[in-house]
Amino acid sequence: MTRAFRFTDPAPPSAATGVTADVYGQMARDFGIERAATFVVLSDSPPLMTGAWALLRESLLAGRVSRTDKEVVAAGVSLANRCPFCVDAHTVLLHATGDHALAETIARGEEPADAGHRRLLAWGKDIRGPRPFPAEQTPEHLGTALAFHFINRIVSALLNENMLPGGAQKYRLVRSAAGRSLARTVRREVPPGESLELLRTSGTEPAWAAGTAVGTAYAALREAALMGAGLLSEDDRALVRKTVADHDGVAHPPLSAEWLPDREESPGARLALLAALAPYRITEEDVRAWRTPRHTDHCLVHLTAYGAITAVERIEEQL
């Protein structure tokens, strides 16, 4: 059977203790998926796991904005980032909301029939454009979009692309059945703020979500992800920052490797840049070139997260 995790071997959720176990408990209650691989792969770093979970929970799951609308935004982001795992996940979750036709429309790569959903999907694909929602909905919509710009990169870098064993999510009946199994959880009200007590980091809230649970969660995730900078030399950090700054953070880089540092000379910078701009192109050779006996799974997850958050910040600064 194909393993879910490409380069790491996280502990099973059944062995979790402390705050990691608390996250799994909240996930089971509020997300309906206790062992989502998206978060299991981050469990080697509780600050990253709690930050990513809090941002997803407070933006996508909690709040007053329609869950369907936010799932459409998340699907748009995932399509733009070429993350089939996440596109499939949001298709299933749209089935869970009861919007079965919309779910399958997006699964086929077609435009939604509803004009509002078309605008949200288009905005999700490039959030630098005009916002098709009122200002008071910005924390939830923008928080959802930036959460998945981060999560897509983690998933593409560290997970295999199949959401279900054997690629079963390819079948409409499987997608629909999976969604129906989550329907009760997805349709219940999720009170905001309850994930914040799990956070292990804090930082300055972004202006677009200041004073909200989304803002607190985003700041915590950003601080946790930036810890990965310590795995790179000063020169490598500068190279990563400059390369990402020269990119718009949205378009996919050319297939040629001219924009990447040499695998043998700067393997850490190469991994971080791939995580930022083309995470689906990370190979076993890239990881092996960087990884030494002192580099644990914790280190690899943090280096990947550093690349991911660098891209997220680049996107955010263009808004």
From TrEMBL:
<protein>
    <submittedName>
        <fullName>DNA-binding protein</fullName>
    </submittedName>
</protein>
<dbReference type="GO" id="GO:0003677">
    <property type="term" value="F:DNA binding"/>
</dbReference>
<dbReference type="InterPro" id="IPR004675">
    <property type="entry name" value="AhpD_core"/>
</dbReference>
<dbReference type="GO" id="GO:0051920">
    <property type="term" value="F:peroxiredoxin activity"/>
</dbReference>
<feature type="domain" description="Carboxymuconolactone decarboxylase-like">
    <location>
        <begin position="50"/>
        <end position="96"/>
    </location>
</feature>
<dbReference type="Pfam" id="PF02627">
    <property type="entry name" value="CMD"/>
</dbReference>
<dbReference type="InterPro" id="IPR003779">
    <property type="entry name" value="CMD-like"/>
</dbReference>
<dbReference type="InterPro" id="IPR029032">
    <property type="entry name" value="AhpD-like"/>
</dbReference>
<keyword id="KW-0238">DNA-binding</keyword>
